[in-house]
Structure to design on (424 residues):
DNA sequence: GAAATCATAATTGTATCCAATATTGATTTC
DNA sequence: GAAATCAATATTGGATACAATTATGATTTC
């Protein structure tokens, strides 16, 4: 095998469970019984447990010793925290990346946006959303910063999915993304950072509104 | 049992390994063979694997599928990222907490400082260091923010431990902590936040200098 | 009838065994 | 002699069996 990180069953089942959560098949607060899930996903309990641990440290699942795991319930405070942190960290990443963004990066970002326009499965939309942001941050080459930002994005993915059920929210999000992308194309760093901040603030506001 | 989170072997072995890493028994880059470690810590490989996964998502261990885990090597970029993030997030936490900090919180913080003065085992010093910071941030009641800050602190713990071998660094750190604590006592929010920022900047500079 | 107690079942965590992958070292081939 | 090939070993990931813990429900006690 050539790849330097062989994909393991634990990882792929984590991905599957993430999809089930984001698509609403597994609802917030719902208990995740290991035997039932392992049967449903046709894996043993061993990789399943590793998957649950991953999701727990991702924030999508809450687990307590000997009592089991359940889908995380996101409250107002969690959403506020996630978006306030993203609002501090993501502009930093974009700024660091900006001088090194290539046409290829921009192409990748645009590809994600185009795909997102045609997609409506929540989990895939969520992945494409991250692809877009990631394409713009990655040229910063700041791995540790990106790791934290990735975590925050995964954790807020559930909130964003719920938000996407808000009327016209996906369209607004797409428009904000296009503005950000155009600013990057124009070499307008300040404009890009401002657009990113605006995008995060608007998303936060809509999600917060929805949850009262 | 009354406690709502029964401690599991995976967690306690994770703590043990963390100590071994922070105390330098396990050096950065060193491979962590499961069988050897499980034998040394007298647990089976099952909880050991969970512990390694935890440490990996904490950032103290790097793991690659089927190839095994090794103690993380921290490069310059990682340290810069960790401290820049902390410099953005921790003042936010302190500011949110400030109006709600009680005398009890201050007492807890001081207790950690006093204990740290008499301690010289790296892993315990690291824990006390976190206790101090955590005591001041916790009244914010912003769990998600605190979780991320905790992660960043755990990840930079290794760097700080190495830094503590710098001559006079622990004394400087203690002094900076005292200034911060005093500002909190005086109800001087701006001063406290400034002191915290200064503390993080100085720690970052010393660590960076040490690593060239 | 409500609370406490205890046995039973359901569920998670751990140990052990097996399979899949990677690493090593000898052998071959040019 | 160096690179490629392949067998043998070491090491990790996964499946199953067992132990520890928690949840459930009947029984008792007041």
């Amino acid at each position: 095998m050539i790849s330097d990180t062989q994909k393991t069953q634990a990882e792929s089942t984590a991905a599957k469970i993430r999809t089930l959560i984001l698509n609403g098949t597994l609802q917030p607060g719902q208990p995740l019984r290991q035997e039932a899930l392992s049967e449903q996903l046709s894996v043993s309990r061993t990789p399943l447990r590793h998957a649950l641990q991953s999701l727990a440290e991702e924030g999508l699942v809450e687990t307590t010793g000997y009592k089991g795991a359940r889908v995380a319930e996101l409250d107002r405070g969690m959403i506020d925290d996630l978006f306030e942190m993203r609002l501090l960290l993501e502009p930093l990443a974009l700024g660091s990346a900006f001088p090194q963004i290539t046409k290829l990066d921009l192409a990748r970002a645009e590809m994600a946006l185009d795909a997102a326009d045609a997609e409506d499965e929540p989990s895939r939309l969520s992945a494409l959303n991250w692809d877009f942001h990631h394409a713009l941050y990655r040229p910063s080459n700041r791995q540790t910063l990106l790791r934290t930002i990735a975590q925050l994005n995964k954790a807020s993915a559930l909130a964003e999915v719920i938000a996407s059920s808000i009327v016209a929210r996906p369209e607004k999000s797409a428009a904000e993304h296009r503005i950000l992308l155009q600013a990057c194309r124009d070499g307008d760093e300040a404009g890009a950072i401002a657009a990113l901040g605006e995008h995060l603030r608007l998303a936060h506001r809509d999600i917060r509104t929805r949850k009262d």
About this structure: Chain B has two domains: 9-71, 76-210.
